[in-house]
Amino acid sequence: MRVRMAAWGWGISQDSAETRVGACAYHLTMTLSPALFAAIAVALQGPNVPPTAGPPIHNGRAGELAVRPPRLSGPVVVDGVLDEPMWGSASVLTGFSQFTPIDGVAAADSTEVLVWYSASALHVGIRAFDGSGAVRSTLADRDKIFSDDHVQLFLSTFNDGRQASFFAVNPLGIQADGAVNEGGRSACNGFNCATQTREGPDLSQDFVWQSKGRLTATGYEVEVTIPFKSIRFQQGKSQTWGINVLRVVQRSGQEQSWAPAKRASSFLSQSGKLEGLTDLQAGLVLDVVPTVTSRVDGATGGSKWQYGGGTPEVGGNVRFGLTSNLTLNATANPDFSQVESDAGQFSFDPRQALFFAERRPFFLDGNEQFDVPNRLVYTRRIVQPVVATKLTGKVSGTQIGVIAAVDERVASRHGEHPLFGVLRLSRDLGPGSRIGALWTEQQDGPDANRVVDVDGRLVLGGIHSFTAQAALAHDERDGVTRNAPLWSLGYRRDGRAFRARYTVGGIDPDFRTRSGFISRTGVAQANVAHSYTWLRAGRTVEALTGEVVLDGTWQYDDFTSGGAMQDRKLHFNMNARFKGGWTAGASLLDENFGYEPALYSNYRLLDTDGALLPFTGTARIPNRDYLVSLNSPAFPKVQFNAFLLWGKDENFLEWASGDILWITAGATFRPTSQLRVNLNFSRQSVNRPTDGSRVLVQMVPRARVEYQLSRSLQLRFVSQYPIEEAAALRDDGRTGLPIVFANATGGYTTAGARRSANLRNDVLVSYLPTPGTIVYVGYGASHTERDFTD
């Protein structure tokens, strides 16, 4: 029971089965029996005055998940102090349950979330109680709060149980935001996918909203205001939204959920509801951001260092809300020089292209609307747009995403402006289920590419899901026309303990997409995986998951004609989560790879008499690798991770067996609340087992230093130094002859030793008062080294 007497500031606050006693400037919380309270009320107010009604309380563990927040008005100052009169009438969400590592049990910490709304905004207040004095908070950059204690808010504004706007705040009110678009994806740690977690948010979107927090004697308190004009929501006089709140406690490594969600199926579909939201006013949504940039490039010219450029360039961005759920973005001559450079990656398998995520702000806004299986939309194909427009939102229950762009001539094969068009439609068929369609087109002079796609996901019983995709690509290039398919089928069972997934798919060798990203064409793949999780509440090992994976790869034409499998993999994975947030993984990888002649079509052997002999390779290479990984919890000053793989693997450069050692290690140091130092190091080496000599070594050391001068002002330094060294190639384990590369004229070039390195340093001072408004000054320098030995 909760009763508030405003004149005296007395009240009762009940959280699950726990009663909390505390004090603040405006009220004292204490426990009173109903009879005693009634007697006091009669004595103070007289027998004819009824007691003041308290705010509605919604206990998640009691299943009180339907929330009808009050519509209130009044001036609000977002200062982290919940002292406005409206907070006393707000709906109270309490009674949290643990989600990770053990779901379904009562949360160890007490949390109150207060919710009310005005005509133009949703208001959320957070009281996170923590008597340990170990609350972790830093003055971090946006979206960099996940090593702190924080609270996450999920708003499913279309009430579809599949997607949600995501807002998170740390104890100081520092923000993270984005979108969750559930599609049944797995969380993996390197090669090890033996984990079961909720799908994480895409942090690419930045909303305009207000938040501020403060540490208190009993934990921390945060005040949040989310203007309706900053988010998309359905049209209608009265609305129902999905809502859930998740609290992350770093000292215990726990996630605590208001809606008692299970570790199975969709996290969003288990949310509560905000009901009776009426007459929401988004107002005019119009952001006009002019840009003026100047860039100076320096390089050696003969014996002197020469500079060029420096001419200011004018551009801009416009964001206009056509309706409450439909937004138009446009940009002209955008500048992306403030975007952090991509981290270096290893090319572990030369048959697969490396993927680099999109980082440019214009393309990130509404990016979840273009989420298509097999990455058939990849906006980095648009290198440097001259002009571009984007329409995203929802109309009559159908999600819409449209992109039209004119690229710079530098991206053209014919000296013209490449043109891009993308249309994505998706419609929900129930909680977690959907059907989607895609059309993409790219035109570059006489060259043209078009892809059409239909894909869908059907969820049954909450834990069973079926997926399907079929796409057809039409490509015209250099007078050659190709039409080719891509397809896939899948089934998943996402139970709390037992999980299974079965997938099969294929990509025709002639499938081409110039608006998407396909890492490897001309293959078909089938995958079967079973896993089981043991949950052990109160034990040192809180969760233990074992997984067995069977994976096969065929050349596409062999698969369609019933031919033999090319690559066979059997993986045994184990993941453990320890008390306090430690996680560790281990894997045994038993694999067998088949020779692919097309990959070595220009390889020849140089005989002792100078003659060129064919390179035949070895029919099959057996592998056995071992993998271990370790991730620490977020300690107050440091967090670290390590990954190690070793064993027998394929030496792709010589198509022979190799001894592989792959190490990745990283650490984040937080010596003060404003300074973050992130260090990462990756190293991969391949040696010949015949004599132990080195074939290849790749190293990527990377350092990132951030100093948060204030909430909106940051100094950033990034440095990385990728190094690659390869020995002269030979036909190891067979003839021992040198390998050369044949050319079309009958000659050859030697496959001699080589070394390359590139030191890149970037410094950026940025002022970001609100998303979309930024002032920055940056400097970047690059030094490339190349050395070839015949």
In brief:
With 790 residues, this protein is mostly beta strands.
Architecture overview:
This protein is mostly beta strands and 790 residues long. 3% of the residues lie in helices and 53% in strands. The protein is built from three helices and 50 strands. The strands form seven sheets. It has a 24-stranded antiparallel β-sheet that branches. Strands 8, 10, 13, 14, 15, 18, 19 and 20 form an eight-stranded mixed β-sheet that branches.
Shape: globular
Helix fraction bin: under 10%
Mean pLDDT, rounded to whole units?
A: 86
The description of the largest β-sheet is: 24 strands, antiparallel
What oligomeric state do the depicted chains represent?
single chain
Poorly predicted sequence stretches spanning 5 or more consecutive residues: 1-52
- Discrete helix count: 3
Q: Strand portion, in percent?
A: over 45%
Q: What structural class results from the helix and strand content?
A: mainly beta
